[in-house]
Write a structure and sequence with these properties.
Elements lengths: L2 H17 L5 E10 L11 E2 L1 E14 L4 E6 L4 E6 L11 H13 L7 E7 L9 H17 L5 H16 L6 H8 L4 E6 L5 E5 L4 E7 L7 H19 L9 H7 L5 H25 L3 H17 L6 H11 L4 E6 L7 E7 L3 H16 L4 E5 L6 E4 L9
Parallel strand pairs: 4-6
Antiparallel strand pairs: 1-3, 1-13, 2-7, 3-6, 4-5, 7-8, 9-11, 9-12, 10-11
Helix pairs in contact: 2-3, 2-4, 3-4, 3-5, 4-5, 6-8, 8-9, 10-11
The chain binds alpha-D-galactopyranose.
């Protein structure tokens, strides 16, 4: 049985133990890895993430009243709150659930209560969007209990609002969008202005390998906000709503008028948007070599112009890029720590993982974690038959 299968049956069992009855539904939402298009989402630009085969589950039962009661297997902690008394608590895990309830209410949804058990296998703090997965699994749970229509874009916006305004993390729309709308076997080109999506298949014969440096991003919040502010300032300089509206030629034409730091920040975003569009085209025609080349260029730009990499990320990316079976590699997510992502020849994956991990350990004395990932579908809801799997 797979790890996912184990986790699911564990959740079903725990629900019965906790609430004394069989659950009615299983909500699941995936984490994500971004293949290219980094620090572009909050510039109204383009991203190309895929949902991964690791996620967050909520196994639950609708209550028909206004109480939400959740047990977290991970924290071994049960919490309860009333939908009519939504007050911000501390910074505990339940705030993600409460925040989504609040954001859905703000969008005019009339919510019903539920009871559920939750757990997941997205590593926390690694930059694989475990929080977006919690938010979208929670939104699916409310959808199951309350019966409103599931619109992935709208749910993503509610999740982002919960994250920004309830939890207090200033993120863009990428993570919730891909967790809500992922397509199996595909990456998703997302236009972060219109929220239009286009699914592009992963190049045949390749695998996506996530390389976790085992370093974590300190001070990422302030650095992230500082990068956002620099981008907004650059957009003002060009007299446009967002850097999405600046093309490479315009940037080059006016480069001499900009201060060097603003120029570097803007150059990353403007060129990254173009690389992301080019990567989606290359992917659609199955050109893994070109996707890889663009990923390598993205890393250089994040390292040198946007300055959100760090030594360990550079080390693991260089080791990956230097492997004969690798098409390309880059840091992924907000940066300052966490993971890199590589596009690798499927046949070479085993050797790639072994050699890159050994090289990284030798260079840094850190033990990397490696996940070979399949592109999975976005947030889903399974209704269980009355004598269904929970009875087993
Ligand atoms: C974090 C944010 C995303 C995005 C990335 C950088 O993951 O949550 O919205 O801005 O950083 O691309």
């Amino acid at each position: 049985m797979t790890g996912e299968g184990d986790l699911r049956s564990n959740l079903l069992r725990s629900f019965e133990a906790c609430f004394g009855e069989a659950p009615e539904w299983v909500a699941r939402a995936p984490g994500r890895v971004n293949l290219i298009g980094e620090h572009t989402d909050y510039n109204d630009g383009f991203v190309l993430p895929m949902a991964i085969d690791r996620g967050v589950w909520v196994v639950g039962r609708s209550r028909g009243d206004r109480t939400v009661s959740v047990y977290s297997l991970y924290f071994d902690d049960r919490r309860e709150f009333e939908l009519d008394e939504l007050d911000r608590g501390g910074d505990e895990w339940i705030e993600y659930v409460r925040g989504v309830a609040w954001a859905l209410g703000e969008r005019g949804h009339v919510l019903s209560g539920w009871e559920g058990v939750t757990a997941g296998d997205v590593p926390v703090g690694a930059g694989l969007s475990s929080s977006a997965a919690v938010e979208m699994a929670t939104a699916r749970a409310f959808h199951a209990a309350s019966g409103f229509r599931w619109d992935p874009r709208e749910m993503a916006l509610a999740g982002q609002r919960a994250e920004n305004e309830w939890v207090g993390v200033n993120s863009g729309i990428m993570d919730q969008m891909i967790s809500a709308s992922g397509v199996e076997g595909h990456a998703l080109l997302i236009d972060c202005r219109s929220l239009a999506t286009r699914a592009v298949p992963l190049p045949p014969g390749t695998s996506v390998v996530i390389l976790d440096t085992s370093t974590r991003r300190g001070l990422v919040g302030s650095a992230y906000n500082e990068r956002r502010a620099a981008c907004e300032e650059a957009a003002r300089f060009f007299g446009v709503p967002a850097l999405r509206d600046v093309d490479v030629a315009t940037l080059e034409a006016r480069a001499a008028e900009m201060d060097p730091l603003s120029l570097r920040r803007a150059r990353h975003v403007v060129t990254e948007n173009q690389r992301t569009l080019d990567a989606a085209e290359a992917m659609a025609r199955g050109d893994a070599a070109e996707v890889g080349r663009l990923m390598n260029a993205s890393h250089a730009s994040l390292r040198d112009d946007f300055e959100v990499s760090r030594r360990e990320l550079d080390v693991i990316v260089e080791l990956a890029q230097g492997h004969a079976g690798c098409h390309g590699a880059r840091m992924t997510g907000a940066g300052f720590g966490g993971c890199a992502v590589a596009l690798v020849d499927a046949a070479a994956t085993e050797g790639f993982v072994r050699e890159v991990a050994a090289g990284y350990e030798a260079a840094t004395r850190l033990h990397p974690k490696v996940y070979v990932c399949a592109a999975s579908e976005g947030a889903s809801l399974e209704r269980l038959a009355e004598t269904g799997p929970a009875a087993r």
